[in-house]
Amino acid sequence: MNLDLSHIELNSISKRYKTALIDSLSNVSFQIKSGDKVGFLGPNGAGKTTLISILCGLIEPTTGTVGYHAKDGAQITGVDLKKILGFVPQDHAFYHELTPMQNLAYFGSLYNLSRQEIKTRSHSLLSVLGILDVANQKINTFSGGMKRKVNLAIGLIHRPKILFLDEPTVGVDVQSKLSIIKFLNEINSKGTTIIYSSHHLSEAEDFCSQIVMIDKGSLMAHGATSELIELHKVKNLQTLFIKLTESK
Fold first, then answer.
1. Does residue 135 belong to any structural domain of this protein?
2. Is residue 25 a part of any domain in this protein?
3. What is the pTM of this model?
4. pLDDT at residue 248 greater than cutoff 60
5. Which domain holds residue 173?
6. Of 24, 116, 192, 196, which shows the fewest CB atoms inside 10 Å?
7. DSSP 3-state assignment of 51?
8. Is residue 141 part of a domain?
9. Residue 211 contacts residue 227 (beta carbons within 8 Å)
10. Is residue 146 part of a domain?
């Protein structure tokens, strides 16, 4: 099957958790094109993480559909879809008592990568991210920025074509943040579609070509970053977000 992504399409996605009185997401629809850098923006509790979880197949929407469309017109589903998705959660998703190499070996094996593939890929990722010198040290001794980089390496071990990032730069120092953003720009330039959740609007404005603004589970805006700023006659994303959420 052709796994080259054309676009992702969300149709009328709503989500209400069992014990909730209101929807976490309400009738959200938009498209993401292959190769985009898309920022999911909104305040805490807006529904960003729920939306990413639905897109990754971790939870089901209450209503609505998500479609991953290949360039040949077919839908990418099941095991084929899992092969091309990478997910880097906000929380650290690795074994702290193990080393980066041991973690990457474990997670790489889950994608049926060979030992040689895992070794080569691990060295490459850790080198580019600037933590190869601590590849065999236990992660529980690492700084917050170093742990974020390990999280990122694990999400990329299988060379996903679509990478989901939930607050990838929270709690890291400026140098680590710049290093992570630089690396993400590099893999995007080689074709990886990036979907990035953040409440850091200035960072998102610099990084994202497209934005999806969410507040209280509703879609407030979707489109090219520069075009939305121009359309609403504001100077930046922060001003745009304040304008849209205050008018709701």
1. no
2. yes
3. 0.90
4. no
5. 5-92+160-247
6. 116
7. helix
8. no
9. no
10. no
